[in-house]
Amino acid sequence: MRVVMVHGILDTGRKFRHMQPFLEARGHQCLAPSLTPNDGRHGLEPLAMQLGQVVDAAWGADVRFALIGFSMGGLIARIYLQELGGHRRVNPFIALSAPMAGSLWSWVFWGQGARQMRPGSPLLQRLQRNASALDGMRLYSYWTPLDAVILPANSSVWSLAHNRRIWAACHPCMLWNKQVLHEVAAHLVE
Questions:
Q1: For 134-168, what is each residue's pLDDT tens digit?
Q2: Range of the domain at 133
Q3: Which end of the chain is flanked by fewer CB atoms within 10 Å, N or C?
Q4: Dihedral (Cα; 156, 169, 172, 117), 10-degree rounding
Q5: This model's pTM is above 0.85
Q6: Domain count for the chain
């Protein structure tokens, strides 16, 4: 299966340096683009458009794939899925420590993207209103109670998804946690 992985704030595609070879060793073709600007200063919508352009350039506009979004990348992925037509090409979508209900941490960070990740933001409200675009899609959300970036940590619990609590020691630890790696790999072949 083809898999696209979307990084979080201040990250690059290198963030998946453990997950990508793990999935590729199991026969998946992975794409982990580095979206810019990676601080989301101009908002998450331009990053979602960039994501679509990168995927189209790499694989064409008709190829189906799985989508994994880590942290802010989970919201970028949702914009792509719900507002840019990605739902027609993607199954499943797996969110890892994504601020589905926002994060209090975003109040101390700058830029439009951070404002969009605040609890109750217009973006989060809009995504909630047009969530019907995800009907029929397999949705998974992984979170750790020990997350110090997604505050409160259960903001990653998503009412539309199968939610999975993982006792990973930190926010980025979700990307190399063995349980997460194995479960993500299993979701890709369901």
A1: 999 999 999 999 999 999 999 999 999 999 999 99
A2: 2-188
A3: C
A4: 30
A5: yes
A6: 1
